[in-house]
Amino acid sequence: MKKYSVPALLTTFALCTVVAAYFEIIDLYVQTIIMFIGVNIILSSSFNIINGYMGEFACGHAGFMAVGAYVTSILNVMFFTSSKTFGDPIFSPELALWFFPVTMIIGGVAAAITGLLVAIPSFKTRDDYLAIITLAANFIIVSLFINMDSLGGARGFMGMKQIVFAMEDVAFLPWMLIWTFVFTYFVVFLIRRFVSSTYGKGIIAIHQDEIAAEIMSVNTNKMKLVAFMFSSGLAGIAGGLFAHILGYINPNSFNILKSTECLVMVYLGGMGSLSGSIIAAILFTLLIEMLRFIIPAADTLIHLIPLVPDTFHLSQVLKWVIIPLILVILMQFRPEGIMGNRELSDFFPKLKKYYEFK
Amino acid sequence: MLLEIKNLYVKYGNIEALHGISFTVDKGEIVTLIGANGAGKTTTLHAITRVPPPEGSKVSGGDILYNGKSLLNVPAHSIVADYNIALAPEGRHIFGNLTVEENLKLATYSRGAEDESLKKDYERVYALFPKMSERRHQRSETLSGGEQQMLSVSRAIMTSCNFILLDEPSMGLSPLLMYDMFRVLKQLNEEGMTILLIEQNANLALKFAHRGYVLDTGEIVASGTASELLSNPDVKKAYLGG
Amino acid sequence: ADDTIKIGFNIPLTGEIPKVGEESKFAGQMLMNEVNAKGGVDVGGKKYKLEFIYEDNESKAESAVAVSLKLIERDQVLAIVGPNSSKQAIPAGQVANDNKTPMISPWSTNPDTTKDRPWVFRAAFIDPFQGPIAVDFAIKTFKAQKAAVLYALSNDYSKNLAEIFQADFNKKKGAGAVVAFESYGDKDQDFSAQLTKIVAAKPDIIFLPNNYNEVALIVKQAHDLGWKGPFMGADAWGNSELMTLCGDDCKGHYFTTHYAAAGAKGETKEFIDKYQKLYGYQPADVAALTWDAINVVLAGIQNAGKLTGNVRKDREAIRNGISAIKEVKGITGNMKFDEQGDPIKCAVVVKINDAGEFEFAESVCP
Amino acid sequence: MALLKIEGLSQMFGGLTAVSDFKTEFQGNELMGLIGPNGAGKTTVFNIVSGFYKPTQGQIIFKDRAINGLKPHKVTGMGVARTFQNIRLWHDMSLLDNILISQHYNLGYNLFDLFTRNKRYIENEKRMKHIAMQLLEQLDLIQFIDERPKNLPYGIQRKIEIARALSVKPSLLLLDEPAAGLNSSDIQDLIKLIRWIHKEFDIAIWMIEHQMAVVMSLCSWIQVIDFGKTIAQGTPEEIQSNPAVIKAYLGDDKI
Amino acid sequence: MLDSIIQNLFNALQWGSFYSLIALGYTLVYGVLRLINFAHGDIFMVGAYIAYFIAIFLFKGSLSLSGGLTLALVIPLTMILTAMFGVTLERIAYRPLRRKGANRLYVVITALMCGLILENGNLAFLGASRKSFPELIDKVVYNFGMISMTNLKIGVIISSIIVYFILNAIISKTKIGMAMRAISYDKFAIPLMGIPIDTIIVFTFILGSSLAGLAGILFAMSYPILDPFMGAIIGWKAFIAAVVGGIGDIKGAFVGGFLLGIVEILVVAVFPSTFRDLIAFSILLIILVIKPTGLFGVAKSTKI
Ligand SMILES: Nc1ncnc2c1ncn2[C@@H]1O[C@H](COP(=O)(O)OP(=O)(O)OP(=O)(O)O)[C@@H](O)[C@H]1O
Ligand SMILES: Nc1ncnc2c1ncn2[C@@H]1O[C@H](COP(=O)(O)OP(=O)(O)OP(=O)(O)O)[C@@H](O)[C@H]1O
Ligand SMILES: [Mg+2]
Ligand SMILES: [Mg+2]
Questions:
Q1: CA neighbor of C183 nearest in space, from C213, C218, C212, C216
Q2: Is the pLDDT of residue D206 over 90?
Q3: Contact A13, A177 (CB under 8 A)
Q4: E299 in contact with D at a CB cutoff of 8 Å?
Q5: Is E225 within the bounds of a domain?
Q6: Which has more pLDDT, D127 or A320?
Q7: E strands along A203-318, which residues?
Q8: Mean pLDDT, to the nearest integer, of D21-44?
Q9: Which of E93, E282, E292 sits opposite A140 (nearest CB)?
């Protein structure tokens, strides 16, 4: 009962969503938002490994996302579609469906290997020097893609929509939605296993006292290596999903701003709280979309009051004032993020009956 | 009466660490507070100097009077600057990124321009702890544990205090240095310094002090002159190791 | 309601180029108010009021996609105007095409936006057309034998145009005639190193296919480094703010664009005056192109003949209507569409005169 | 074969010689003391032995293997565990986790096992937990198992540090001022504890301590250093009456 | 060739001056609070806007003062107002968090958010139009052979050097400077020395923000186009410069700023400019790998 309740609940939720999408009960807009939530969950929870559990301050997550996005997209486009960059498909397009997870994983592995770029310097440096290394890595990766003219450079790379169509040709299902669910669950599952094992807790020990960790037999260099590669690999997976949801990628989509969003989600949720990361990703994505509706509504509302001049309008620009403002205010009340470093089950002990964080 | 603690209650969040303690320190006295680990000794000193520990403690009742004036609403830095009460805190809290000399200099922050008394104080500290003058230009975080302890005490002396609170000053000191330090503290006391001392080594503390209070889980359970306490059988059993 | 025509705007109200979004929005508001004041659009004998929905794509690709889907699914618009930059227009174009909703980008110049997408159109001419005009003009007017280019690396518009200019100039003046081909990064403010290189290469002209704000800085810095020769630019120069930012430094230089504000006549002038009166500044080309883009959609509706109220059918009818357009009279020139959905229209070369006005120099038609 | 043999050990910091030509030897499971004035270089010796500093000069042979230059976690894995002069627990993790994590040297499974959660993973996790529970049981800490160290009394924290060091199954235990900050009655308990550990686990213990009561009643052999140099060694009685030691370190206990 | 190298060195010095001035502000706040004040780039932006409004008011407004006089007034006024602005930010956003003992990274994120609010708030209230800073002093271009310099460029370089020496004196010689360094190490013990901690922090923000204000004026004069996002990228990069120099160290920030300026400009001069970011950041990364604490950062020798 305890063991299966949460997986069962999640599977049911995913199935219902997919069925609803199939029968067009929920429209494409809502589906896209759900998919973005999935991507953001992967981003924030994987970033939390470094910034939360390990307590380092990295700020270049989007760079690894870019690597995953490009590698997965290139492989898929090269293998399964005819494109002007790579010519005819190497494999039959129907195979795209079966190989999609494989190319996604390859993208993740590529991102993980790029993670070495920051992992190795991190052996010797700590906190804010690491921030710079990751920041510089982010700049470097984006700059690298901008310079690759064969991949479109600043014009971006496309053709991933053909992959989705190829999958739909095999069976007409909302494939990207399905893949988003699969990978989001998969990633959270992996992270949960990692951080609840004695092995994984080594990174928490590094957070709390690195010297004690090293002297008490934790191989800190290896742990850092594992943590960085794990985290950036998962970011690569998020990138792969992102690329196929959008059908188009552009190096500038992975700049510091995107990394900033990742940072916000992690700290909003709470350092070292997996459920916090998930909640924060959901809230953050929804907040951005909700303001699309709220600002015009509020504008209409204030114009009901005769005092407000007709020329004055609440503009969408306020969105990016309101979102950070909400976060700043929230921080004042919960200076440890929504969840602190605790999990849902710590807040609602009754939940422990149904699931355990292990 | 120089310092009077009246029925003091202190809380950490919801946990009450001091349940209404009262004691006094007279001008020119050496008073010691002894008690088991966690009895609330450090908490008391923090309450007097108004420094909030990182987790934040709150005085929830009672009063702290210094020369008859309440200290409760005095900001922490002014306890040192205006009331001339210094604390050598538990855990040393030296400024590791500064040199030894800079640490000492910083302690004179609230004192006026360089004058004679300042020079005398430097000399006194260097004479007391020759190590400090040897290591004058060393970054203080690389000092050994005991050296850091010396620095912490020296620093307290360097503020313009006439009342000094010492939280386990002998921790980590070699026996020789420990005796040296107590000797100098005694000397300071003879020059007019009032001292409130916390010491784990109750034997030593009581030999050194005029009077003492025994604190147990946030309450004062015994008090008296040093010799009274030394011969008190309960105190003997619980705190003097035999 | 039944008697409205809903059109969605997918524009960058926040993010990197908010000014572009603002002008698109203002052009839309102006047109809507005007049409609605007259009682609306007459389609097949029935009056329809216009209803425009402005959505912010934050100048981000993923938001542009979300916005497109919101407009298509939630708001059930008949057509989408925008996005303006290719970075957003390419993915949003895919969405519009997949969901069979006509989309017209006022400003995007990347061929991929419309390529193989029957539902996607644009109002601006594409770079392969604009580049050679600048080349020809430079050769003709300045007798240029050598040219230098400074472009924004991460701006695909700038990069595209720079490459086309380079290829064309080298073709016409021999390989290596472009003596310096330099770039700069996102939000850069200092160009002295690139300009030092350019000035040292002694070109006859410097081509700057950049946004007006960067142009102002580049021109000033080039002058600081001792450059006294001419500059040429492209349509992104065509912003009223160019002169407030650049001042005297920009006077006497040329750029290719869609229309010349100074000395504009007829409807174009009317548009400019109205806009200036309402919003206090001269509209840039993006406003004019947005205006034209909306008119293209309206022309498509006219071509469709009638609206059924069934959104899917109407969208299809509008798409067919747009591609069937013989010619629309736009304030940026008259246009019709080729099979890719790109407009066939004339470009003008504009001179910045000593009064700081954009003065017509010549017109080039395909 | 000696358990630990240190020869010609020197450590310089810039111009400062913290340890010079230090040597010592552990045959089997002695309980030895290392004392000396503040700044004499005692902690530095421990830091070198535990791999935290690379010595400027010298040889450290542990179980017939040179360990100078090895990374601390390797040294610990070989059986040298230590406590710290200033408590360094992982304050925001449960006591159990503190004891578990220090068994990293012998996890017995790899990342693949972890993610698939196969038998090897489960068994090893069980094993480590068993070791931890047993240790906490033995040291009478079991009632604090879910507490975070920062919320526990100072004396208990000192004890936890020792427990954590023991979880490495060391053959040599380094204790750096274990009695610092403890009051007289706690010290009596500590002495009993160390004596019991020495017997029960049958390991060598090397201890730095300034409280003479502790050193004298526990150690069979004491080495005194000053300015990094050994100035005396011998039994507690010999040390207590050694004039050089009295002059440099012990003093005459009068206030 | 030699000409261009010398020309580029001058270019680099000017460009580096801005990185330096901003990096100094970063480092000051960091050195005291261990807070990466990500809003610092935006305080710089605010400084530029304040300078703009004052300049417009005095120069173009009814007063129409002369350019030189305007500048003489703009500099102190801007520095004061920007300082007040920075202090206010500290008061309302950072201090409450600090008081609550929040993890310092939450304060960092708050700073990041405040930066966004400033950028977009500016956009929302002042509109999307960019502002053009008036020319307060007549630009003079000096030509030495192929090398061109302007009076403004020379002024910028000299100002940043003067600022550095003043700042360095404050930090290393005065008691308040010592207190600033001490806070970063142990906040708890500061009041025990009789030092009012908040006063020191406010002083730090005054120093840092007024520097940002000064940088804002000089920047607005050199690159006279102001937009709400002008501080974002230069802020990030100045932060990188500060760290490469050794964050928390005044000399490090100063040298790091110039280093970044020089690297950026020389990379363009030598390599194809498309590779600027790639090569420049790779160089910085390599410096950090070789010297993990930055050029002047002292390795925090951990003593256990
Ligand atoms: N930050 C804190 N949060 C919660 N409780 C605390 C905190 N600091 C101290 N306490 C509790 O307050 C009580 C008194 O602690 P205090 O540090 O004053 O004791 P002490 O007598 O100085 O002990 P020691 O001899 O170990 O220094 C203890 O029970 C302790 O657990
Ligand atoms: N990392 C370092 N850098 C520079 N000097 C150091 C470093 N570590 C230790 N020292 C110096 O080496 C000397 C020996 O220090 P150590 O910590 O070994 O002393 P100790 O014998 O443990 O003293 P205590 O009893 O006070 O703890 C001290 O003078 C100290 O200042
Ligand atoms: Mg205490
Ligand atoms: Mg020591």
A1: C218
A2: yes
A3: no
A4: no
A5: yes
A6: D127
A7: 248-249
A8: 92
A9: E282
E74 lies in some domain: yes
pLDDT at A357 over 60: no
Binning pLDDT at 50, 70 and 90, where does residue D158 land?
very high
Amino acid at position D214, single letter: V
Q: What is the pLDDT of residues C333-366, one digit of tens each?
A: 888 888 888 888 888 898 998 988 888 888 888 7
Return d(Cα A146, Cα C154) in angstroms, integer. 6
**Contact C89/C110 with Cβ under 8 angstroms?**
yes
pLDDT in tens, B17-27: 899 999 999 99
Task: Check pLDDT > 70 for residue A183.
Answer: yes
On the question of a cis peptide bond just before residue A335, with omega within 30 degrees of 0, the verdict is: no
Rounded Cα gap, residues B42 and B33, in angstroms: 10
- Could you give the CA distance from residue C324 to residue C320 in angstroms, rounded to a whole number? 6
pLDDT at residue D73, rounded to an integer: 94
Task: Please tell me the predicted confidence (pLDDT) of residue E123.
Answer: 87
The pLDDT confidence band at residue A108, using thresholds 50, 70 and 90, is very high
Neighbours of ion ligand 3 (CB under 5 A): B 42, 90
- E303 is a domain residue: no
pLDDT of amino acid A1: 56
Q: How confident is the model at residue A202 (pLDDT cuts 50, 70, 90)?
A: very high
Q: If you classify domain A2-354 with CATH, what class do you get?
A: mainly alpha
Whether residue A358 is predicted with pLDDT greater than 70 in this model: the reply is: no
Can you give the residue ranges of every domain in chain D?
4-90+155-254
Instruction: Tell me, using a 6 A CB cutoff, whether residue E303 lines ligand 2.
Output: yes
Query: What 8-state DSSP symbol labels residue A305?
Result: S
CA distance E254 to A299: 48
Domain range summary for chain A, segments of one domain joined by +? 2-354
Find which of C16, C54, C69 to mutate to test the A interface (most A CBs within 10 Å of its CB): C69
Alpha helical stretches, state H, chain C: 18-37, 61-69, 86-98, 127-142, 156-173, 192-200, 212-224, 241-246, 266-279, 285-304, 311-323
Domain encompassing residue E232: 2-127+136-290
Q: What is the DSSP letter of D207?
A: E
User: What is the reported pTM?
Assistant: 0.91
Burial readout E21-34 (b: 16 or more C-beta within 10 A, e: otherwise): bbbbbbbbbbbbbb
Q: Is residue E295 part of a domain?
A: no
Spatial CA neighbour of D43 closest among D88, D80, D86 = D86
What number is the average pLDDT over the span C81-110? 89
Q: Give the orientation angle of helix E40-55 with respect to helix E104-126, to 10 degrees.
A: 30
Whole-number pLDDT of residue D183 = 81
Report the pLDDT value the prediction gives residue D44, as an integer from 0 to 100: 93
Question: Least CA distance to A84: which residue of chain C?
Answer: C112
* Neighbour subunits, B (≥3 Cβ pairs < 8 A): D, E
Whole-angstrom distance, CA of residue A105 vs CA of residue A233: 9
For ligand 2, whether the C-beta of D174 sits within 6 Å is no
Q: Are E52 and E37 in contact (CB under 8 A)?
A: no
Distances (CA, A) of E116 to A327, A329, C118, C291: 11, 14, 39, 32
Residue E202 maps to which CATH number?
A: 1.10.3470
User: Where does residue E150 fall: left (phi above 0), alpha (psi -120 to 50 degrees), or beta otherwise?
Assistant: beta
Contact B92, D181 (CB under 8 A): no
Contact C148, C165 (CB under 8 A): no
For chain E, what is the domain count? 1
CATH number of D4-90+155-254: 3.40.50.300
Residues of E in Cβ contact (< 8 Å) with B53: 188
Q: How far apart are the first and last CA of chain C?
A: 43
How many angstroms separate the CA atoms of A303 and A313, rounded?
9
Over the stretch D48-67, which tens digit does the pLDDT of each residue have?
999 999 999 999 999 999 99
